[in-house]
Amino acid sequence: MDRYNSSEGGAIAFGRHTFDIDRYELRTAGGPPVPLGQRAGRLLQALVEAGGRVLSRDDLVRRAWPGREIDDGNLRVQIAALRRALADDDRTLIGTVAGRGYLFAGRAVRRPIRASLPGLPAAFVGRDALVDKVVARCAATRFVTLAGPAGIGKTALALAAAHRHGGVAWAGLDAAGSEEGMLAAVAEALGLAPRQYWRSPATLAAQLTRDGPPPSSPPVALLVLDNCEHLADACSRLAEALLVRCPWLGVLATSRQPLLASGETVLRVPALALPAPDDTDAASLAANSAVALFAARATAAGAAFAPGAGGLALAAAICRRLDGLPLAIELAAAQVPRLGLHRVVDGLDDMLGLLRQDASASASATGTPRHRTLRAALDWSYVLLPAAAQGALRRLAALPSWFTLDDAGALLQPEQSPYDTIDSLAVLAAHSLIVVAHGRETRFRLLATTRAYALSLSNT
């Protein structure tokens, strides 16, 4: 019998039950919380803490009615209420020892109230409407994947939506190199003991079904799987298992590619809105989301950034050159205190220099090595591609800004057949490495940062 100490608050789990010590609430296998009341709650806490030791009538009265004298009938009423709440008709959890008192015969495990949700990035600008859309999509469907290229702001968007949602368990998968590592991260986020649930997504989901939602305030109703692209198949299987077995839980994933799971709704994360090329109005430029992010990041980096129309026009030009990619804009803006606006504009001709800039001081940096530079993030996207798509990306960088399927086919032949070319373009689009514009004729484009990266690979 385990000795359990709940003096730090939180929750205790035993069998199919979870008891919130601070609220005196009992939850059974995913059902709604049932308030026990202070007396019964204190009795249950005392019995569990005793770890199988018999507690006398006087021991229990001191815990539930401190400083008061009560008759035995009051104690029996509260014990009977506890047994009803626990469906313990056969007294396998709360036993009676004739002439001595009561004991708790279950095995209790501490499950602290979790606060796993990271804080919001400081420079989160121009995404309010998109956050509203994500929150609404999560309310309408149980499984949403935010997909988009490196640096587009998927994690920041998921964080903002999660903070509005409430009741969220956050599992960052950057350091998970295998399905086992992914399951361990998810188990930790949900307050489960990870060693018991590494076998498969199905076993983790089955255990969570038995245990019910992890104790938290508000109750966990959304699991965020952040950075899924390198474990797409495993994350897909986990999401499908959770959707089937845990009706109280929704899933929000971030990935550079859709997970292709049953029930998945994919929301492509767009770049920040850009001002029109002929827009020179200072008020209009200052209100633009991409320019506002640039100004906020430049100011945070130490620049006295209060430009007039000319400076705002330069900032807008920088944002357009960077395709509205939030991380690239932040990296460029961080150079303003050292170089000034004009030199930052001139420096964009050396896009590789921007790719190498360290983002560890960025207001939205994740702090993980594969996100500290744009090059590291693009390296990660590149290694996840099949060889044919890698070769296509390197060669497509030589094409002009927008190109057609025929343009790509002419460039990639004879190494790739027309069908191979279509497949490579589909893979690159799925991995968010090319932009697709549908119209009378479908057109494709590499973002400026992706083009610079692909050209650097071609020159090595």
UniProtKB/TrEMBL annotation:
CDD domains: trans_reg_C
GO biological process: phosphorelay signal transduction system; regulation of DNA-templated transcription
Location of the OmpR/PhoB-type domain: 9-106
GO molecular function: DNA binding
UniProt superkingdom: Bacteria
Coiled coil: none
Designated name of the protein: Transcriptional regulator
Source organism of this protein record: Pseudoduganella dura
DNA-binding region: 9-106
Keyword Chloroplast: no
Keyword line: DNA-binding
Classification via Gene3D superfamilies: P-loop containing nucleotide triphosphate hydrolases, Winged helix-like DNA-binding domain superfamily/Winged helix DNA-binding domain
